[in-house]
Automatic annotation (TrEMBL):
<feature type="region of interest" description="Disordered">
    <location>
        <begin position="264"/>
        <end position="291"/>
    </location>
</feature>
<protein>
    <submittedName>
        <fullName>Uncharacterized protein DUF222</fullName>
    </submittedName>
</protein>
<feature type="compositionally biased region" description="Low complexity">
    <location>
        <begin position="267"/>
        <end position="286"/>
    </location>
</feature>
<feature type="domain" description="HNH nuclease">
    <location>
        <begin position="350"/>
        <end position="400"/>
    </location>
</feature>
<dbReference type="InterPro" id="IPR003870">
    <property type="entry name" value="DUF222"/>
</dbReference>
<dbReference type="InterPro" id="IPR003615">
    <property type="entry name" value="HNH_nuc"/>
</dbReference>
<dbReference type="Pfam" id="PF02720">
    <property type="entry name" value="DUF222"/>
</dbReference>
């Protein structure tokens, strides 16, 4: 495949990659116009090819005698691997592609011609998704002439007005359905922060937010905010009312720390062997908080200490902390997770915990979903062993997809050709090979611990265990 001639698209990609900015600013703007048109048209082409691929794959599944209720499974997953996006995003994009081909053909043609952006086409898709196909096509015909001159918000408003006009009862039905879809989501954000998003009916949401604003204003008026801003007071009230605990009391957690001893204690432990050999992890580098992701070492120490100021505790305060801590040991040469301390008040599956911490998120390439299942790479039903090397953390979706005809998943680390049969070298990253029904192959290697600094091979991982055992021994429960 490496020596295969470039396709027409390949030549286009090569030309765009080598393109340089024009000398004259007028020509630079012209380049931007043309590139945006190309980008729009590319999205339209992706939609067309995706739909055609879905049709042919469904026919292939029919020939393979896949039960009708399961046909279609795994198609978006193959598209996701090819486009280097998550399966969830590929599913959404495939739904959009179907609409552009079948119900919103006019909008799809404008997109494929480069006359409207993907965001504008998505807005029309989103605002008309609840309509019957015939009504959706009617809205599409009405909007076609106006869309090229509209921005994203204007396109959404125009589509919403047209949808209301062709189906006046639709708004009430959608409102009733939306109330049944109320939910709460969690999303990790940079700098050790997160978002908790609530999807609520407007009256309840307005009342909840209004209550926070009103009570925060009362505290501000009485001088009880202690230097905090009103948004900070509202955020603190939000947490207190959900958990029943004051923010300043700290939150009880079990921190599955993936961090070196020097990160936790703020010093550099010395090897107990001959000459002192310092650990090589970065004391200020990122740690890993299970369920969230990378966090600053200072924040990890603060969580352990239950310190109300988050970044306030010194290493000595963290050392005296009474929060539950579970040790996670890493290989100092490769940065890979090598062991998880089983000691805590409850023993609830150290093997599962190990794989979850090692893999961090679903092992499907480009899938950012949280781990739902600790899966046997070589199926348990076919004799696959229940051990670390044969385990992989995956989302529920991929656990079902990989059982479809034509899919294979195998452990291949230590085997350069990917053909199996070679034992992995010690400390090598856990690698699996995924083959799709079309014969395309993809590899997934467990990531190194965030912030790990690769050490010289002679550094012993036992240093971390010895230092932690010395400092924390009195606080472990068997």
């Amino acid at each position: 495949m490496e020596n295969a001639p470039l396709s027409a698209v390949g030549h286009l990609v090569e030309a765009v990659a080598e393109m340089r900015s024009a000398t004259d600013d007028f020509d630079k703007i012209t380049q931007l116009e043309e590139l945006q048109t190309l980008l729009n048209a590319t999205v339209g082409a992706i939609a067309r090819v995706s739909v055609d691929f879905e049709v042919s794959q469904r026919e292939d599944q029919r020939r393979r005698q896949v039960p009708s209720r399961e046909r279609g499974r795994g198609i978006a997953d193959q598209i996701a691997l090819a486009r280097r996006i998550s399966p969830a995003q590929a599913s959404r994009d495939l739904g959009f592609a179907r609409a552009m081909q079948r119900d919103l053909a006019g909008t799809g043609e404008l997109l494929s011609s480069g006359l409207i952006t993907e965001r504008a086409a998505q807005a029309v898709h989103r605002e008309t998704d609840h309509l019957e196909p015939s009504l959706r096509r009617e809205v599409d015909r009405e909007l076609a002439s106006a869309l090229p001159d509209l921005g994203v918000r204007a396109a959404a408003n125009a589509a919403r007005r047209a949808a209301l006009a062709v189906d006046p009862e639709g708004a009430a039905k959608r409102a009733r359905k939306a109330a049944g879809d109320r939910a709460v989501w969690f999303k990790a954000e940079p700098d050790g922060m997160c978002k908790i998003v609530a999807f609520l009916p407007a009256p309840e949401g307005t009342a909840a937010f209004g209550a926070l604003k009103k009570d925060a204003a009362t505290e501000q008026a009485t001088g009880a905010i202690d230097g905090r801003t009103r948004p900070q007071v509202m955020a603190d009230m939000f947490v207190e009312r959900l958990t029943g605990r004051a923010v300043r009391e700290g939150t009880p957690v079990e921190v599955q720390l993936v961090m070196g001893a020097d990160q936790l204690f703020g010093d550099t432990p010395q090897s107990p062997s001959t000459s002192p050999t310092p650990e090589t992890s970065d004391p200020d580098g990122p740690a890993w908080l299970d369920g969230y992701g990378p966090i600053p070492a200072a924040l990890a120490r603060a969580i352990v200490a239950g310190h109300p100021g988050l970044f306030g505790p010194s290493p000595a305060e963290a050392d005296r902390a009474q929060a539950w801590l579970r040790r996670v040991f890493t290989d100092p040469v490769t940065g890979q997770v090598t062991a998880v301390d089983p000691r805590r008040r409850r023993f609830d599956g150290t093997l599962r915990r190990f794989i979850r911490i090692r893999d961090q998120v679903c092992r499907t390439p480009f899938c950012d979903a949280p781990i739902d299942d600790t899966d046997h790479v070589h199926s348990y039903a076919e004799g696959g062993p229940t051990e670390v090397d044969n385990g992989a953390g995956v989302c529920r979706r991929f656990n079902l997809v990989k059982e479809m005809p034509g899919w294979t998943v195998r452990v291949v680390h230590g085997d350069p050709a990917g053909d199996g049969g070679v034992d992995p070298p010690p400390g090598h990253g856990h690698t699996i090979k995924i083959t799709t029904p079309t014969g395309k192959t993809y590899r997934s290697t467990a990531p190194p611990v965030p912030g790990a600094v690769i050490a010289a091979p002679h550094t012993s991982g036992s240093v971390v265990e010895l230092i932690l055992a010395e400092r924390l021994d009195l606080r472990w429960s068997a």
